[in-house]
């Protein structure tokens, strides 16, 4: 009934302007029913107006900046360094924010064009999201999505270091930005058993094995299997106790 309806998208949050306005996951809820309009077709046109962002809370803006940050790690060192260097000035410079949004969408667009339906290459954009979704669930969504993802990216990097995949110095370079994004939030009180259970429900898992997006360095983000074993749970406990600051 609703298939093929032309629609125009006016994203009004930084999260939607810098991320979700493009790609196949653009359905709209209507009333109490989910994904009723536009679920099978992307918008005809997208209009991004950063004036809308002036109405948002600081937390909403931080959430958008957190979500966008994972694209720049995926893209490469120079892209992330530019994003990180511009971060502290973004509140004062609307032109700079527009550039960050544009760059974020350009990175995502490259992957959408080769994997529109998220079957292979585009799955690297789940970086930070398995852990982030678990954090959202366990905190009853009191931690906004992009902020949960920023925690999730650091957890993914921490696990990557533990597995000998990533140099800790790179992890700390990335964390230097991420901890600014999650400032004011804490996940240190999360229970490891409940965290592990939430991770076990991730839709990307295969059988009893997690499918995580891990990191070998800037531009070297990849999908890897991970057993939900005692060693992994020990790493989670260590992170929650000592690293999520």
Brief digest:
With about 240 residues, the chain is mostly helical. It is built from nine helices and six strands, in the order E-H-E-E-E-H-H-H-H-H-H-H-E-E-H.
Secondary structure layout plus pairing:
Elements lengths: L7 E2 L4 H7 L7 E3 L2 E5 L7 E2 L11 H18 L1 H11 L6 H21 L14 H10 L6 H18 L5 H14 L10 H9 L8 E7 L5 E7 L2 H14 L2
Parallel strand pairs: 1-4
Antiparallel strand pairs: 2-3, 5-6
Helix pairs in contact: 1-2, 1-4, 2-3, 2-4, 2-6, 5-6, 5-8, 6-7, 6-9, 8-9
Comma- or semicolon-separated keywords:
245 residues, mainly alpha, Dehydroquinate synthase-like, alpha domain, 9 helices, globular
Q: Can you tell me the residue ranges where pLDDT is under 50 for at least 5 consecutive residues?
A: none
The oligomeric status of these chains comes to single chain
Tally of structural domains: 1
Total number of beta strands:
6
Order of helices and strands: EHEEEHHHHHHHEEH
| Distance between the amino and carboxyl termini | 49 Å
C-alpha geometry: globular
Strand order of the largest sheet: 1-4
Overall average residue pLDDT: 90
């Amino acid at each position: 009934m609703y298939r093929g309806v032309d629609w125009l998208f006016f994203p009004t949050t930084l999260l939607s302007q810098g991320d979700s306005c493009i790609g196949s996951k653009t359905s709209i809820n209507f009333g109490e029913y989910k994904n009723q309009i536009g679920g099978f077709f992307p918008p005809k046109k997208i209009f991004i107006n950063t004036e809308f962002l002036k109405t948002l809370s600081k937390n909403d803006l931080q959430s958008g900046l957190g979500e966008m940050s994972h694209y720049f790690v995926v893209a490469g060192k120079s892209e992330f360094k530019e994003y990180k260097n511009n971060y502290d000035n973004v509140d004062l410079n609307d032109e700079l924010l527009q550039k960050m949004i544009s760059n974020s969408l350009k990175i995502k667009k490259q992957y959408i064009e080769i994997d529109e339906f998220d079957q292979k290459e585009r799955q690297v954009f789940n970086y930070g999201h398995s852990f982030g979704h678990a954090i959202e669930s366990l905190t009853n969504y009191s931690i906004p999505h992009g902020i949960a993802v920023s925690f999730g990216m650091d957890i993914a990097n921490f696990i990557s270091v533990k597995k000998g995949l990533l140099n800790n110095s790179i992890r700390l370079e990335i964390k230097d930005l991420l901890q600014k994004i999650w400032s004011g939030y804490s996940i240190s009180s999360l229970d490891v058993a409940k965290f592990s259970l939430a991770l076990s429900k991730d839709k990307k898992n295969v059988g009893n094995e997690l499918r995580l997006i891990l990191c070998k360095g800037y531009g070297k983000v990849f999908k890897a299997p991970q057993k939900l074993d005692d060693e992994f749970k020990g790493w989670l406990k260590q992170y929650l106790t000592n690293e999520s600051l």
